[in-house]
């Protein structure tokens, strides 16, 4: 505390810090609105042309930006436009799941390339790292392109302070391990780690329907049920990164299924895509996965009406819980349930309206998500790379 009668001092901001902040602002504008000419960037940022030119030169030097020729017009060839590097640089996105893992490449603009390496999820953590390293090196070998980093999307609880998985009911081989740090050691590139629902939330904001929105929630329904919340433009991660595990709220008080977390009756045991596949397996008398369930529903060869009603009922319970707890302006729902019948989405919304507090429901727009977990892994590493620009040397 400052002595009585004196004013607290203000920390001096060094010129290098100002320069880094200008670079970060240029990157953000090009992320949201690029490609743009230097003059357009200056107008959007509210910075002087010389300031923008200095920031752009630095970003071109480190490979985060590149120049692209603008289409020629009747007035001749216009000034080249700036964009996030996509032809000269790439990032990799890794999604890890209980059944299989995917490694994809993308430009810094988030546009996914056609290259995709899929591997079955191994039974040990060491073998998992071996498989992911081999898949990543296959994409890193792309000629003429520099790989700037790799993002990992991981299911379960993730401790961001330690950068490791804490508890993954559906992928226990990752418990206590730090896949991003371990892959960084093996590959020699920058790597980032995001919990998969948080990654999906970030993907929607950067590349999906939430672009330009700072307050929304993402209900991620797949093997489990997770939640990502964006508030004030920042992910709500909790004290250590464990926020968002709505799938482990108790939905069936007595006699529910055993969940991978060890409890009974968790929401994800009745509302997840995997739960639908388990109910379908019981009805058919054989094991089916989510892909086969979707195929059966499209073909209309089996009657799964009761199973779908149960999935809709409990998904609506989850939606209502999110609305009541977080009061989001928009709630995105990511699930395969709506693939075969869009009317199921309307039924989820109708039932959620009956369960949620009326003001919370009335104040929220509910829509199917557009972003993917692949994009989420990419968004995580792009954010890491661009945020690093704002940090002082």
TrEMBL record:
<feature type="domain" description="HTH marR-type">
    <location>
        <begin position="23"/>
        <end position="75"/>
    </location>
</feature>
<dbReference type="InterPro" id="IPR011991">
    <property type="entry name" value="ArsR-like_HTH"/>
</dbReference>
<protein>
    <submittedName>
        <fullName>N-acetylglucosamine repressor</fullName>
    </submittedName>
</protein>
<dbReference type="InterPro" id="IPR049874">
    <property type="entry name" value="ROK_cs"/>
</dbReference>
<comment type="similarity">
    <text>Belongs to the ROK (NagC/XylR) family.</text>
</comment>
<dbReference type="InterPro" id="IPR036388">
    <property type="entry name" value="WH-like_DNA-bd_sf"/>
</dbReference>
<dbReference type="Pfam" id="PF00480">
    <property type="entry name" value="ROK"/>
</dbReference>
<dbReference type="InterPro" id="IPR000835">
    <property type="entry name" value="HTH_MarR-typ"/>
</dbReference>
<dbReference type="InterPro" id="IPR036390">
    <property type="entry name" value="WH_DNA-bd_sf"/>
</dbReference>
<dbReference type="InterPro" id="IPR000600">
    <property type="entry name" value="ROK"/>
</dbReference>
<dbReference type="InterPro" id="IPR043129">
    <property type="entry name" value="ATPase_NBD"/>
</dbReference>
<dbReference type="Pfam" id="PF12802">
    <property type="entry name" value="MarR_2"/>
</dbReference>
<dbReference type="GO" id="GO:0003700">
    <property type="term" value="F:DNA-binding transcription factor activity"/>
</dbReference>
